[in-house]
């Protein structure tokens, strides 16, 4: 989905219970894979309106939330201000083209983002570079699907084969790579209501 579409949909993004349920399931899965502590610096890439990070915020130190959509970031900044949260901040960032931020993080996570990225191997290598020694990555995304999750014309990946993702993470330098079932999400498609499987891939630097 181009940024212009994300910008347009940003104000209504949190109105779908499916998205909120998915975000909480992803947050729960991340907490099962990574031991959190209050000094942990975290980075969410492709954060959207921050649903996953809001679920994780009480358990972490500072969270940097990055997205390339100005509309999403505007909604997110409003939510952070309204909630009076002091350990979350945002940056506009597109790692396909922008240089890496100078900071390094103990934890980097994404939710339903990787299938929008053309060169996933390059992106995983960039994720590796953003982590501190002994840092952790967690990636939630769709299992391989028939192309009906998105509307016709979608140019990203129709989900991923778990073994392929495992190999890509290892190729990027990650160790102790594991891929587990995170949750299932149901949505209306061009072929009616369908349920899709979501995995969580985790690795350590």
Description:
With 205 residues, this protein is α/β, with parallel strands linked by helices. The chain has a single domain (3-204), classed as Rossmann fold (3-Layer(aba) Sandwich). The chain is 32% helix and 30% strand. It is built from 6 helices and 7 strands. The protein has helices at residues 3-9, 17-33, 51-56, 70-83, 120-130, 162-171; strands at residues 42-45, 63-67, 88-92, 105-111, 131-142, 175-189, 192-204. It has a 7-stranded mixed β-sheet with strand order 3-2-1-4-5-7-6. It starts with a helix and ends with a strand. The mean pLDDT is 94.
User: How does the major sheet shape up?
Assistant: 7 strands, mixed
Helical fraction equals: 25-40%
Instruction: Using the coordinates shown, work out and report the CATH topology.
Output: Rossmann fold
The helix tally amounts to 6
Give the CATH H-level superfamily: Vaccinia Virus protein VP39
- Going across the major beta sheet, what is the strand order? 3-2-1-4-5-7-6
The termini sit apart by 30 Å
Please tell me the CATH architecture by its name. 3-Layer(aba) Sandwich
Reading off the top of the CATH hierarchy, the class is best stated as Alpha Beta
Low-confidence stretches: none
Strand content: 25-35%
What's the helix-strand series?
A: HHEHEHEEHEHEE
Structural class per helix/strand content? alpha/beta
- Domain tally: 1
Shape: globular
Radius of gyration equals 16 Å
Number of strands: 7
**Arithmetic mean of pLDDT:** 94
Quaternary structure annotation:
single chain
């Amino acid at each position: 989905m181009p940024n212009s579409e994300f910008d347009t949909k940003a104000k209504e993004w949190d109105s779908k219970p499916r998205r909120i349920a998915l975000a909480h399931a992803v947050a729960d899965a991340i907490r099962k894979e990574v031991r959190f502590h209050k000094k942990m610096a975290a980075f969410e890439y492709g954060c959207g309106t921050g649903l996953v990070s809001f679920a994780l915020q009480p358990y972490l130190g500072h969270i940097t939330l990055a997205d390339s959509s100005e509309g999403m970031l505007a909604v997110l900044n409003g939510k952070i201000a309204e909630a009076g949260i002091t350990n979350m901040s945002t940056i506009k960032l597109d790692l396909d083209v922008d240089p890496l931020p100078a900071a390094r993080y103990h934890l980097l996570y994404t939710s339903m983002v990787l299938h929008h990225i053309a060169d996933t191997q390059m992106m995983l290598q960039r994720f590796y570079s953003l982590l501190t020694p002994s840092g952790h990555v967690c990636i939630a995304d769709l299992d391989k699907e028939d192309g009906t999750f998105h509307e016709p014309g979608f140019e990203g990946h129709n989900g991923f084969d778990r073994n392929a993702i495992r190999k890509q993470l290892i190729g990027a330098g990650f160790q102790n790579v594991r891929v587990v079932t995170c949750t299932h999400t149901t949505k209306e498609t061009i072929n009616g209501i369908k349920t899709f499987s979501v995995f969580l891939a985790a690795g350590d630097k």
